[in-house]
Amino acid sequence: MMEPQKQRRKGKCAVYDELTAVDIKKMKEELAHRVQVLRPQLIEEVQTARAFGDLSENFEYKCAKQAKNRNDSRIRYLERMIRTAKVIEVKAEPDAVGLFDRVTIYNEMIKKEMEVRIVTTLRQDALKGLVSKESPVGKALLGRHVGERVQVEVSPAVKYFMEIRKIEKGEDDESLHISAY
Is 142 strand, coil or helix? Predict the structure, then answer.
């Protein structure tokens, strides 16, 4: 199983996200848009709202300032992710579960068949069936084969079994959006 890379710096242990080249590209595109397009617009909105008068009761100013701060926060987040990410290559084994594969599983705990797709942490969205390779389900499935029964350990007290019924090989594509945070 792939674990996040750890590196020691000045007595601290930093965990680096393992991301693909497509993840990095998508983050750089979003960062450029936020810096070059969104930031100037939001600064202008703050200045316009400031001109409305008394700042203590100026709702437009407070909203504009919050939007600017959220954008600045996202910019810092993207810059940090790009700077600290470990870029990985997607290596597919022909008959084993790998990154970006669609996997049909039978969850024995809820007695239901479901389909999940294994993705990087940046693109996870459980409601859409996009499961991070770092999640308990992702860790349990990676490298396994059709017909295998795997144990998912959510916590030391919560464990359940799934059976792998089908694997459809996938690839890293730009259709998967990066998550907000």
Answer: coil
